[in-house]
Structure formats: structure tokens, C-alpha cells
Specification:
2 copies of one chain form a homodimer. Chain A is α/β, with parallel strands linked by helices. Chain A has helices at about 40-55, 95-100, 110-120, 185-200, 215-225, 230-250, 270-280, 300-315, and strands spanning about 5-10, 15-25, 30-35, 60-70, 75, 80, 105-110, 130-135, 140-145, 150, 255-260, 290-295. A 5-stranded mixed sheet of chain A has the order 3-2-1-4-7. The longest helix of chain A is centred in the C-terminal third of the chain and has 25 residues, at about 230-250.
Chain lengths: ~325, ~325
């Protein structure tokens, strides 16, 4: 009997590393996870990944390739460079992985992997030009141009989280000011609430919560309860994000922008103002040419689907 | 004897239409021009172009294709749509041209043609990822990704002149506010001077010139004479442009940005502040990855070289 063709997707996080076998249609055939143990070198991590993978019965599978998603991964070099949550030197993860499984192997960062997951299995199937925006602690983006990730000259293209949204605006972790992610992200909306609480005299239950305990989820919950500060925070987030997305459309003329991640789960609270301000700021020729869509990747499996989609796309484009 | 392979480049302007034969190396073998006569339909214009072309002795040439540059040209549809300076309905110029010369024919807008000219014959030879910025009355841009123009979903990608540079800023011809071209263009710097004259009490010979007679060239001349208002206007132009270009690098990770057109002829007056503010606003990982370069297209021939490069690139990429 012929074997089932699958891709091995590996997503390396600061705490956990998840991996799984995914077929061409995006069906998960096997998933598993291990703790990353961020202080141990990459070689040991991959040793444990493959040990645990091989403990499963893999007889019915033919692994066509390996896709690795990781923070700061560089597709061109196959390496993970100064990863924020791992005590690694620059490490060529593609070479390390191929010591265990000698098949076509590529790596990319999390946001690009999410974009590829969306392209192959999610909200952007059949699309050639779209932008995936991941709204987590920060704002990541993966930009698909002509059916493939835009890597640019360095491999690091698509840093929309660090375009200047407000000149001279909020202090950003990158050392600059006013970056989009200081407004449009889970932490950005917390900062917005904090500013609004100072600026306005409006009553709000959010006045009872210390800054450090505020979360995007809590703000969304209170917005649904009608809290005016929470609602205004979503409106302002939509304003900054919508304007930035209209700018992205002027540059890329993408057919869709897909919002993914924690803050995107707020649904209409985020989508309604974002769409409204995006339309308002859109250049006439691009009006009604770009949809704003929620991700269709199941949040628990997005990392594995994205990492698998990475190598499936390479195979489909004949690049490996 | 074998014939010389050339491309026919046609650049349709509101006043004049220039055309010429250009070989693969960018050598002009023939150039000519006619008045556009903006009130006459496209069919008549092309009739006159080919009549005048055929009046030359073309025996030694083999025309491999035709590239047409025009305002509002759409590469995908082969058409010119609502051109600002021509009394045309939407016109399929590719079809019209092919009635006279049945060879591979494509059209694109002026900024994309300039980018292709730079790619094939100018400052961006051998590059795969760069952005051409044309600084004329407005600001146009042609974005090269993986060696070809980025067209996006609509054919109109690359409208960097209409990204919002200053939220709620200057009134733009597009009906919106704060667009980059209202600051960084020949007309933008005139507006900047006008604002500075109101804002400051600094002496300046520019106070003697009516707004309508101010020009980027005059401002550059006075800046070279040490006029402080003129110098400050270039500094401010560099600030707005430099910040916008740093944002473009975060999105595209291009290896160069090439400045072309009237305002770019101001040389160091523009390049020094633009480079300084671009560096200042650049995300760390992109520092020193993107050069700011002056165009190497001779200004008189840029239109013909760009239009020719358009079809040469199609041929080289095997697209026609």
C-alpha cells in the first residue's frame, strides 16, 4: 500500500516546541510537543524532537519535507538569529534538522509561517497577494506576493509591526518610537486603556485593575459589557491599525488582509472600527479591492499548520 | 547581415509622446517625438506614432516588442484608465498598438517604467529588490520584488505617494490628508517653504516670491546661497521622506531606494537629510542593508529607456 505523503512541521517557541505531520490538504496526522528548554543548545532540542517523533509508528507516512517556524528565523540562511526567548547563538537549524532527517528543509519566522498556513489551509486559499497580521504581544506580519512569502534582500521583510504609526509616539521595545505594534497588539490596547483612563473622567471598571493585570481579553470582556473606556480603546486601536492597513494596501495592493492571534479573537470589537477606518483612509482606486478577514486557522494548530505549509509551498513552487 | 534586436519604447505624456528603439544594452538606436494632442482618441495617436516611426529607415532593426509607459496604465488589463491629462475613455492601448505592430506589447505607469529602466540600464542593475521613487509634481513609486514589478491584485500596487506620512496633515489632490507626496515632491517643498515663511521670522529672499512662482529649483538655488528657510525646507522634506522610506524598508527589505526626478536633482541638499533621517528611523536589523541612490537614467531619455526596459524585462523573464 502506498504511504501517506506528509510534511513535518516544527514550531519552536520559548517554552514549548510543537511538531506534527500534516498532509497536503492540511489534515493533521500526528501532533506532539515537548518543552523547549531554552538554555539547552539547538542540537539537543532537535535530538529530543526526533527521538519523540520516532517513538510514534511512522510506517504509513512518507515525510516529504520539514518546515520549521521560529522567532527570528531567516529563510535565506536557514538559521535562527539571536532568538529573543532562547539562549542560542546564531544556529543553522536547517542543517541541524537534516542531520536527523535528510529531506528538503526550510525555516521561517512565525508570522510568515502563519501567512503560509493561511495560504494553504486557511482564509487565503487561492489567493496570490495578501498580508497576514498576527496580533499577539507584538504585531507580526507575513506578506504574500505572487503566491510566495516576500523575503526582500535580507530575509526579514514584512516587519509591519515596526512601521511608524504615530510619529514621535509610544516608546517601543525596538528602541524607536510610535511603532504600529505599540498601538495595535495585545499590549498596545492595554497601553491605550491606561492612557484613556488618565485622559478621560469616564467611569470604568477598568479603573480597579492595575496596569500589570490588564489584558486584551479583559478589555474585550468589559467592552462587551458596554464599558465606554474599553469600547473607546478598541475604536482607537482600529483607527491606528486601519490607517496603517490602508497604507499597506497602497504599497502592496493585496486582495486581503487576514487578522490572526489573540487580539483578533475580539471579533467585531476589533474588526468593525478597523474596517471603518481602513475604508476611510483608503485611496480611491483601492476601495473595495481588499477584504479584511479573520484567520481560519484553528488557534491551537496554527503553528503546526503554518510550519507544514511552509514546506508544502516550497514543494508546490518547485523550490526544493 | 543579421538585424539589430531592439525594443520600441513609447512614453505617452499629456503634452508630448516620445518613442524610440533601444537595444538590450540600453543604447538608443532611434528617438523621436510627436505632440500628444490630448483631445484626440488613442487610435489616432498610435496611427501618428507608427506613421512617424515608419518614416525612418528601419531595415537594420528587428523590433522584438513594444513597451508603453503612460499615466494610470494598468499592466494586467493593457489599458490606460482615466488618464489625468488625456481626454480618453478607458483605452486598451496594447490592443491599439498591436493593430500596427503585431509583437509582444505591454504597458505600465511611468513610475514602474522608471523602475524597470533603472533595473535594466541604471542604478539598480543586478538588483532583485529595490524601490524607485520619482519626485516630480507628485511622488510616484515603482517597486521591484524578485526582479519584477510588484503589481499586486489590481495592477496598481506601489502608490507610496499616497501613504499617510502625517496623520491629518496636508490636503492632497486624492481627497485625503497627509499623503507623502504633499510633503516629498516638487510641489510639496513649495508648500513647506510657504509654511515656514509663516511660521518663522527668519529673513529670506523667498519672501519676495509669490507662492505660484516658487519652484523646487528656485528653492534649491537659494539653499545653495545659504538661505536658511530654503535649507530648513530641504531638511523637513528629508525628515518626512526619510521616515517614510524607513517604513518602506521595514515592509520590503529592499537593497536600495533610488530617487529620480526633478527634486532629486537637488543632490546633497535632498540626499543628506533624507539619508540621515532614514538611518535615524531605521529598525536595527535593517541598518546598513539599504542604499539610498540617485538615479542613473539620463533625465532626457528616462522615459524611452523605461518603456523599452519594460518589454525587455518581459522577454528576459519569459513572460511574453
Amino acid at each position: 500500500m502506498s504511504k501517506i505523503e506528509v510534511a513535518l512541521g516544527i514550531d519552536i517557541g520559548g517554552t514549548n516546541t510543537v511538531f506534527g505531520l500534516v498532509d497536503r490538504e492540511g489534515n493533521k496526522k500526528l501532533t506532539d510537543s515537548i518543552t523547549t528548554n531554552s538554555s539547552e543548545p539547538a542540537e539537543k532540542l532537535f535530538n529530543r524532537i526526533y527521538e519523540q517523533l520516532n517513538a510514534h509508528n511512522l510506517d504509513e507516512f512518507e515525510i516529504k519535507g520539514v518546515g520549521i517556524g521560529a522567532p527570528n528565523a531567516n529563510y535565506f540562511r536557514g538559521s535562527v538569529e539571536n532568538p529573543p526567548n532562547l539562549e542560542w547563538d546564531d544556529t543553522n537549524v536547517v542543517e541541524v534538522s537534516r542531520q536527523y532527517l535528510e529531506v528538503p528543509t526550510v525555516c521561517t519566522n512565525d508570522a510568515n509561517a502563519a501567512a503560509l498556513g493561511e495560504l494553504k489551509f486557511g482564509a487565503a486559499k487561492e489567493m496570490k497577494n495578501f498580508i497576514e497580521i498576527t496580533l499577539g504581544t507584538g504585531l507580526g506580519s507575513g506578506i504574500i506576493v505572487n503566491g510566495d512569502v516576500l523575503y526582500g534582500a535580507t530575509g526579514f521583510a514584512g516587519e509591519l509591526g515596526h512601521v511608524t504609526a504615530v510619529s514621535g509616539g509610544r516608546d517601543c521595545g525596538c528602541g524607536r518610537r510610535g511603532c504600529l505594534e505599540t498601538y495595535a497588539s495585545a499590549t498596545g490596547i492595554v497601553r491605550t486603556v491606561s492612557e484613556l483612563l488618565g485622559d478621560s473622567r469616564e467611569k470604568s471598571v477598568l479603573r480597579e485593575i492595575p496596569f500589570k493585570e490588564l489584558s486584551a481579553k479583559r478589555i474585550a470582556d468589559e467592552a462587551r459589557n458596554g464599558d465606554k473606556i474599553a469600547l473607546e480603546a478598541f475604536d482607537y486601536t482600529g483607527l491606528v491599525l486601519g490607517e496603517a492597513l490602508a497604507n499597506a494596501v497602497a504599497a502592496f495592493s493585496c486582495e486581503a488582509i487576514v487578522l490572526f492571534g489573540g487580539l483578533a479573537l475580539a471579533g467585531d470589537l476589533l474588526f468593525e472600527p478597523t474596517q471603518r477606518y481602513m475604508d476611510e483612509h483608503m485611496l480611491e482606486i483601492f476601495k473595495n479591492t481588499c477584504q479584511l478577514l479573520p484567520s481560519k486557522l484553528p488557534s491551537g494548530d496554527a503553528a503546526i499548520l503554518g510550519a507544514s505549509a511552509l514546506i508544502w509551498n516550497e514543494i508546490d513552487l518547485g523550490k526544493v
